[in-house]
Design brief:
Length: about 160
């Protein structure tokens, strides 16, 4: 979801997944396609694209924190619809206290801006994803040789 230039989509393809990857930005999708083949890159709005899955894994690196709060209902409906029972949702998002706007949902609508992305607390993530089983939720590790920034949460939920 919100695959951008396809970093994770290409990685998942390399390790054996069949991958559908979607992004609103045509430039990002064109760039992702230039970076390799084998992934079904889709240009469009994930809420409107008619995705059906069913998928073993839905992966969101950095999309949720760019969505206004009211879109979380549709986000959960989308994930719930396309994910197989027992399937996993992988999530990366800004961690409160380290990165992102910490305004309340009401304040965000008052100022009319997401201020570059929303910060989430551990409690807020557990509340939003309460219908999922939490497999892991922790700050991303740095220095592993892979992408890693400690201002991000990384989470795995199971439907
Ligand atoms: C911070 S970028 C993350 C890109 C990529 N996942 C990564 O980790 O490098 C967030 C992406 O979500 C995309 N996005 C936001 N809302 C979307 C929507 N409704 N449907 C599809 N893509 C969306 C944006 O276009 C943007 O490329």
């Amino acid at each position: 979801m919100g695959c951008g230039p396809g970093r994770n989509a290409h990685y998942l393809r390399r390790v054996g997944f069949e991958v559908d990857a979607i992004d609103l930005s045509l430039e990002a999708i064109e760039w992702a396609r230039e970076r390799g083949s084998g992934v079904n890159f889709i240009h469009g709005d994930m809420f409107e694209a008619g995705l059906t899955g069913p998928y073993d894994l839905v992966y969101d690196s950095g999309c949720l924190h760019h969505l206004p709060p009211h879109r979380r209902v549709g986000y959960l409906e989308l994930v719930g619809r396309v994910l197989k029972p027992g399937g996993h949702l992988g999530l990366v998002c800004f961690a409160a206290g380290a990165m992102g706007s910490e305004r309340s949902d009401a304040e965000l609508y008052r100022v009319g801006s997401l201020e570059g992305g929303l910060a989430f607390t551990e409690e807020s993530l557990r509340w939003i994803f309460a219908d999922f089983a939490g497999v892991d939720l922790r700050r991303m590790r740095e220095g592993t040789g892979h992408f890693g920034e400690s201002f991000l949460w990384t989470a795995l939920f199971r439907r």
